[in-house]
Amino acid sequence: TLSYSPRTNRLVGRTVITARALIPLTRFDLDLKGLEVRGVKVDRRPATFHRAGQELQITPAAPPALALPAS
Q1: Helix (H, G, I), strand (E, B) or coil at 62
Q2: Of all helices (H) and strands (E), which one includes residue 51?
Q3: pLDDT at position 47, please?
Q4: What is the per-residue pLDDT for 11?
Q5: Strand 28-31 relative to strand 2-5, pairing
Q6: Are 64 and 25 in contact (CB under 8 A)?
Q7: How far is CA 4 from the centre of its chain?
């Protein structure tokens, strides 16, 4: 979702990324340039995160569920 307030010149949005882990992950990074992040969730649980340049480094509370092979 995305909203913009001309009065405050503020753009606010929410993004959902769907991904599958093929190996257990204790941390993963996403490329993200120029946007402020206020919160991150992995598998609907709050995750810790910090910025390192253009990388958003995410540490889930628990490793995300692994992708199951197609049968």
Answers
A1: coil
A2: strand 45-52
A3: 95
A4: 86
A5: unpaired
A6: yes
A7: 21
Task: Please give the structure tokens belonging to residue 56.
Answer: 């958003």
Residue where the block lists tokens 């599958």: 20
Extract long-range pairs of 57-60: CB within 8 Å, 24+ residues apart: 57/27, 57/28, 57/29, 58/27, 58/28, 58/29, 58/30, 59/26, 59/27, 60/25, 60/26, 60/27
pLDDT at 70 over 70: no
Nearest to 67 by CA among 19, 17, 16: 19
Tokens for 46? 């709050």
Residues in the chain, overall count: 71
pLDDT tens profile 25-50: 899 999 999 888 999 999 889 999 99
